[in-house]
Amino acid sequence: MWTLYTFAVVSPSPSAPLHQLLQQASAAVQAVRQGRSLTDSLARCPDALRPGTQALSFLTLRRLGRAEALLKMLAPKRPQAKVEGLLLVALALLMPDDAPPPYAEHTVVDQTVKALKDRGSSGFVNAVLRRFLREREALVAAVVQEPVAAYNHPSWWIARLQADWPDDWQALLAANNQHPPMTLRAREGARAYLERLAAAGIAARQVGPQAVVLERAQPVTALPGFAEGEVSVQDLAAQCAAPLLLLRDCPPHAHVLDACSAPGGKTAHLLELRPDLDLLALDSDATRLERVGQNLARLRLGATLKAADARDTAAWFDGRPFDAILLDAPCSASGIVRRHPDVRWLRRSEDIAQLARIQSELLDALWPLLKPGGRMVYATCSVFKAEGVHQIDAFLQRKADAQAVDVAGVTGHLLPLADNEPNAVAAPLDGFFYALLAKRS
Fold first, then answer.
1. Which CATH architecture has domain 182-233?
2. How far is CA 220 from the centre of its chain?
3. Mean pLDDT taken over the chain
4. Which residues carry out catalysis?
């Protein structure tokens, strides 16, 4: 569902003047506020402006709750949409932060005014930003009394985390506003690939058997062997899926289903670990399924691809039961908000119940297709218990022949916090939930 971009730093350059980046980021942020995906906006952005636009958009969306509250104080009468968007981006840039600001304050004000196509608003924008700089400490102190401005998340999201994780909710909200590490899956193992990265002058460290975390994010074109299929971008949490499914004895040429496969990272990982698998990759979106094919082609791997809703088994199931099923179910994506900061603003409280219903329907539809003695991995990139432990508890109540198998450090909720990582990895992983389900013979 989500596209990963690897650029994360705002850096001025002659090809990307700040006023142009502000215009693009303003439009992208306003699109998110109107319910449209940031990924779609970035896809329409000119190539030369896309890295800087993404960086500004990410920064603004991570601070959007506070920026909106500040703008209401500074401009009680709501400005027109384009002016509003520019002010939100500029206020996000001017907020106090522990990290050095990417631009000087006077540059942000000057370039925001320059970004205005309607010069009639320039005096208003200049006045708003200069007042914020004069009264910044007092204004920020006033707005952070409200949770949305304090934590930069919708109120319903904050309340759900408080209920699900009463000891960790503040840390989870803070983690969502951090920059994520860029983690790679090295096909031939992390140790060997670290040597290739060192030869290319790219600093990294090993965090798993195939997992490497880069000190600084890089475009994939700079990664040794990427075009040849020797390495893929995949977070450490997502790298748990394939080994978990293949953990127990899996027969040669096992018939395996990847039920919601796009964009194909876990599909490819399964085949890297077991090239002999007879693997069927399903996805309900034919366009996204094309990305699975493209990823497999780059990695020189093969699988049967079929566009179908996994719940509608009559439309695609050929009657051959599966030895193993990976169900990476549609979810809120609440565990990967640091990679996709628009998610928190696009989701609505009522979405969670709807997504949980789809997850339940997928589990019930696919379970009969599993051989006795087979196993299913249920996964979501969510930290909400309704999409994780509560979902599986309800499933086990419905299915007498289903048994949950605990695997230390992998099954259950993996929270994106430093003290909740497998093997105490220094870079926190994404938020995920895994359940390994065995079908009794």
1. 2-Layer Sandwich (3.30)
2. 17
3. 93
4. 381
